[in-house]
Every structure is written in structure tokens, then in C-alpha cells.
Design a protein that fits this description.
The protein has seven helices and eight strands, in the order H-H-E-H-H-E-E-H-E-E-H-E-H-E-E. Strands 1, 2, 3, 4, 5, 6, 7 and 8 form an eight-stranded mixed β-sheet that branches. The chain is 46% helix and 27% strand. The termini are far apart. It has a single domain, classed as Nucleotide cyclase, GGDEF domain (Alpha-Beta Plaits), CATH 3.30.70. The chain has 201 residues and is α+β, with helices and mostly antiparallel strands. The mean pLDDT is 92.
Length: 201
């Protein structure tokens, strides 16, 4: 897998050449890199406000506390950390069920931790979930419409303590497995049809 990104970009270069058989190259890319995953994007609410008020070093401390708290939860729920960038995590799960279970568990862990933290140190977690075919390239990169949708939901749309989910991820859940309900969002996200707020006890 170490040379997979280089292989992908060689195929993209071939695709960009004049007269290339783009359909055949696309099929080769999907056959080589295409996999079905559930995708979770996490984000912390109030990044800009807290950084301006308390400084970047203080916020780095909050990021460190978030990672220390959530990494064990992710591992227990069979999740894979693809990348950690600033206050966001990109996670992959083999099933939408595991993705939602982990998302709820991560929020509960943050809520419990916040009970003993002063407001400026609290971990205010937002999450977006997608599911479906993606291009997974090596161990640290992935692309696809559900990756984009999960990112937009988790980083740009969700507020503190919210889990937002695409219609594809909702359809991939095991019926009757969760004691949750879903409230449809007005927002439409590129790469996704309907999107929902998960409401759980």
C-alpha cells in the first residue's frame, strides 16, 4: 500500500492525456482503490472564538485532551483513524452501525468529561457520518462523495453535541438496532440527498 498514492496519480495523469479512454481508466481506479466504508468526520465547536480569546496554545491543549479521550473509544468500536488535522478527525468504519455507535459513545465521553472541566477547556464535539463507496488510497487518504458530505456535515453544519448523517448512511444502518430517531435537515449537502440529525437518549 505504500506506493498506492503514486499509482493513483499515474492513472490520473494517463486520464488527463489527449485521447485517453477515461471510462476504462475510471474502472481501473475504482477496481484498484474502491471500497465500501462508513465515514465519520469530527470537529470541535468554537475553534476560532476560543483561539482568539485564549490563544492557540490553549486550544492545542484542548485538541490534545480530545485525542486522549476519543482514541480509545474509536478503537473499542473498531474504527480506523485516517488522519487528524487540527481539531478534526477523519475516521473509517466497516459498518454504519459501528460508526453511529462510536459517534454516540464519543459524544457521551465528551459530555461526561465536560462536567468536570471549566467552560474554556470543554470538548464541544460535532460529528458528520456518511457511508458508501470511496477511494481509499494507502492508510492516510480517502476521497468520495460520502467523504465530502460527512466533512461538510461534521465541520460546517453540525453544532455542539450534534450528529448529522447522510441518507446513504442512514439506509445502511441495521433496522431496529438503535433507539434513535432522525430529524430531516433543511440543508442539502453536495454528494448527498437528504440529511438528518440523529436524536438519541
Amino acid at each position: 500500500m505504500n506506493n498506492s498514492e503514486a499509482r493513483l496519480w499515474r492513472l490520473i495523469e494517463e486520464r488527463a492525456a489527449s485521447g485517453a479512454d477515461t471510462a476504462a481508466i475510471d474502472e481501473s481506479i475504482w477496481r484498484t482503490f474502491g471500497e465500501d466504508w462508513a465515514v465519520v468526520f469530527t470537529d470541535l465547536a468554537g475553534f476560532s472564538r476560543k483561539t482568539e480569546q485564549f490563544g492557540i496554545i490553549h486550544f492545542l491543549q484542548v485538541i490534545h485532551a480530545m485525542r486522549e479521550l476519543l482514541y480509545p473509544v474509536i478503537e473499542r468500536h473498531r474504527g480506523f483513524l485516517v488522519k487528524a488535522e487540527a481539531d478534526s478527525l477523519l475516521l473509517l468504519f466497516r459498518s454504519a452501525d459501528d460508526a453511529l455507535r462510536c459517534s454516540i459513545a464519543m459524544q457521551r465521553a465528551c459530555q461526561q468529561a465536560n462536567e468536570r472541566l471549566v467552560p474554556e477547556e470543554q470538548i464541544l464535539l460535532c460529528l458528520g457520518i456518511g457511508a458508501g463507496p470511496i477511494l481509499r488510497v494507502g492508510n492516510h487518504e480517502c476521497w468520495g462523495s460520502q467523504v465530502n458530505a460527512a466533512s461538510k456535515l461534521g465541520e460546517d453544519t453540525a453544532k455542539t453535541d450534534e450528529i448529522l448523517i447522510t441518507d446513504a448512511a442512514r439506509e445502511a444502518l441495521t433496522a431496529g438496532e438503535f433507539q434513535v430517531d432522525f430529524a430531516e435537515l433543511d440543508a442539502r449537502i453536495p454528494g448527498s440527498g437528504k440529511n438528518f440529525r440523529v436524536r438519541y437518549r
